[in-house]
Amino acid sequence: MKNEKCKVQKSKAVAIVLMSLLALSTAVISVDAHMPGAKAPPEFELEPIVITDDGTEIEITIDDITEYHGGICVCGGCAFRASQLGISEIWGGEIPARDDIRIVSRLPTPGSRDCFQYVTGTGPGMETKTKGEYEIILPDGTEITNMSNKNLKVVSKGNTPGNFRFDVCRKSTGECFEVVVKEGVFPGDFFELRKKVKFGIPENATSEEKALFKSGWEETREKFLTSPDYELFEGVEEPEEEEPDVMGGAIFFSILVTGLILLLALVYSRKEAT
Question: Which pLDDT does position 266 carry in this prediction?
């Protein structure tokens, strides 16, 4: 009887361990599903997006987007930076109200969707007092109303650099700023490799092509997390470096030399007097 009881307890223990391992592996897969085998992003620091929700000021960090989406990917990083830039260009030093924000994206991907829905408060499971607006309208004018992961995966097969364009608008004034990712941010073969690796179009990717795409994906994600706006987006000017004040330095040096000469002259004249 004791042996049977021990066997039952052991079986339960084994079952619990197996279930735990299964849950852990599922969690790892969900986090790593964007790019299996991708290395962790480098250390980076991004300023939060600051908005108000029914008068309450809130900060939206890249960590919030990562947690909501289930990982940090190329599209999520791009969408976060695009939101930052667009809000800065339209509102300047003001803090926008969430329900005054409208974002129109040409990019049909879950990562960008989750970021823009989080910013506008339109995502599932979000508890907000106010909501902005978020739409996906493809470059050819097609509006995507079914934003499920399954449908976006189908629609995104033909993504090109032309999809990485986003309108950030102030509803109250109608003013918009189009955020456009610069040519060269993505490696030249990024989208062709993406089709092969993710969709098997026009044929399945080789192991070499998979490794090349993973490397390009990591590199592009890093750019969106660490590069300045002027390297990522069109229409953003590189800040001018402050030139050394040569004239001021020359004047100071002249005053210094003149002062020394006068001091020496004074000392010499006193010696002569004595």
Answer: 57
Strand partners, 178: 167
pLDDT of 41 over the 60 cut = yes
Q: Please check whether residue 73 lies inside any domain of the structure.
A: yes
| SS3 readout for 235-272 | CCCCCCCCCCCHHHHHHHHHHHHHHHHHHHHHHHHHHH
> Structurally, how many domains does the chain consist of?
1
Alpha helices (H) along 70-206 = 74-91, 110-120, 149-155, 190-194
Range of the domain at 71: 45-188
Q: Is 122 within 8 Å of 202 (Cβ atoms)? A: no
Q: Please write the tens of the pLDDT for every residue from 84-95.
A: 999 999 999 999
Tell me how crowded residue 110 is: count the other CB atoms within 10 A of its CB: 21
pLDDT at 195: 97
Rg over alpha carbons for the chain, rounded to the nearest Å, is 29
Phi, psi of 179 (to 5 degrees): -90, 120
Amino acid at 86: G
Distance (Å) of CA 80 to CA 103, 155, 222, 274 = 12, 21, 13, 79
How far is 119 from 146, CA to CA, in rounded Å? 19
Examine residue 25 and state whether it is found in any structural domain, yes or no.
Answer: no
| pTM across the whole model | 0.78
Is 272 inside a domain boundary? no
d(CA 89, CA 173): 14
The distance in angstroms from the start CA to the end CA of the chain is 122
Residue 149, in any domain of the structure: yes
Pair 137, 166: CB distance under 8 Å: no
